[in-house]
Amino acid sequence: MSAIRLLVLGAVRQHGRAHGYQVRNDLEYWGAHEWSNAKPGSIYHALKQMAKQGLLHAHEIAPSTAGGPPRTEYEITPAGEQEYFALLRDALTSYDQKVDVKSAAIGFMVDLPRAEAVALLKERIRRIQEWRDAVTDHYVPEGGPEQLGHIGEIMNLWLHTADAEADWARGMIGRIEGGAYTFAGEGEPFVGVLTEGEQNPYATGERHPEDAR
Amino acid sequence: MSAIRLLVLGAVRQHGRAHGYQVRNDLEYWGAHEWSNAKPGSIYHALKQMAKQGLLHAHEIAPSTAGGPPRTEYEITPAGEQEYFALLRDALTSYDQKVDVKSAAIGFMVDLPRAEAVALLKERIRRIQEWRDAVTDHYVPEGGPEQLGHIGEIMNLWLHTADAEADWARGMIGRIEGGAYTFAGEGEPFVGVLTEGEQNPYATGERHPEDAR
DNA sequence: GCTTCGGTAGTCAAGTTTGATTACCAGTTT
DNA sequence: AAACTGGTAATCAAACTTGACTACCGAAGC
Questions:
Q1: Euclidean distance between CA atoms B57 and B171, whole angstroms
Q2: Between the CA of B14 and the C1' of C20, what is the distance in angstroms?
Q3: In angstroms, what separates the C-alpha of B180 from chain A's closest C-alpha?
Q4: Is A1 helix (H, G, I), strand (E, B) or coil?
Q5: Is the pTM of the predicted complex or chain greater than 0.90?
Q6: How many residue pairs bridge chain A and chain B with CB atoms within 8 Å of each other?
Q7: Which fold would CATH assign to domain B1-81+188-206?
Q8: What is the pLDDT along chain A (213 residues), one digit of tens a residue?
Q9: CB atoms within 10 A of CB A207
Q10: Which residue's CA shows the smallest distance to C1' of D11?
Q11: Where are the domains of chain B?
């Protein structure tokens, strides 16, 4: 799964109605250009595709006052809602090891009820464990791990990564169960989008971490 | 960076001369279809692209004895060698967090001298640290991390991941410095390809870990 | 002797991603 | 007032990826 659909659906959904540039801006606000493939081309493509598939409804709108070409506003459809939650649940549970999907999942998890988020994360840990066992079973040759030579280091990396992730997930579950954050149906939701005219504190001009990579 | 070029160059290089199917088989032997986008289409595409770019030299060959369409054999050119080592060094040092690049880097690191591998890995750790600092600096708002709400968990995940990786890298450096594995210029290299006619123990039919994901 | 099956080797269309580029307007300089 | 700068909004070609499909041969089974 690529994270772009989840991100775009989530952004449109939080706005109620949004055009491409708005989505693009939100994703930048969330830092998504740093940890996902959220380039303009991908975003506009995703919007069009999902409109074609009936997940979004497109409204043709006159050119904005702020200049630029005529823009299209999108609104999420019931089918889109459904897809959104399906993607979100999948992103939270499946052990996929891609940063973009994980980060998006965390960003949107509060759209689910608290109990469900916890349950999904626990399922995630179960799957990590399962995967870990499968790797261990499958890749250790009869003559012991030494036989693999330096290739064994790859397996070692995977196991290390899996353990670190399970660890992290357990930590987050603890905080959620301890009452942290505001989930669906618990009053004022966390505001995660820029309202019209609001300054984006993370806009270009600042130094971003990926510059250092 | 996508890992496919590194993988294909490395495979061709180890063979001296190889056709697409051989490369494809090696990658399967290494388990690459599980942790990278090494599908047949991508492999053949990469071979053709790199041949066009002068990184590989293509020899048109008559149909094999084993049936099938006429095949093309590829050989790495000096430019290809150079590109290979550039990609490999980059994969080892840059903190890229993609499993495929990392795994490929480990698989091929023994093509470098031992001292250089260690130096590159140390540089990797330095960059992870640098990245970690940048994230911490940049994403902590004035009002303390609590202001971020659940979004702070994303940052937390990154830091957790970065620490786990630095940890792992330090472990591997220790083993390498302790004399483990056989690096370039140290005698008989580790055999990482299937020779003609050899059975692939990981060929289809077995259960692979990703089935469980 | 014929048919089926599995392995060998590769192509292709459809979809996705990338990075550069366009076009427009408002405000600011020169 | 003409030229420049920067933000808004989007498009496009080229490259890459995906998954299904083709074509061929040898061996095993009936």
A1: 39
A2: 37
A3: 8
A4: coil
A5: no
A6: 128
A7: Arc Repressor Mutant, subunit A (1.10.10)
A8: 789 999 999 999 998 888 889 999 999 888 888 888 899 999 999 999 999 999 999 887 766 555 556 788 999 999 999 999 999 999 999 987 788 999 999 999 999 999 999 999 999 999 999 989 888 877 666 666 666 788 889 888 989 999 999 999 999 999 999 998 999 988 776 665 555 444 444 443 333 333 333
A9: 10
A10: A41
A11: 1-81+188-206
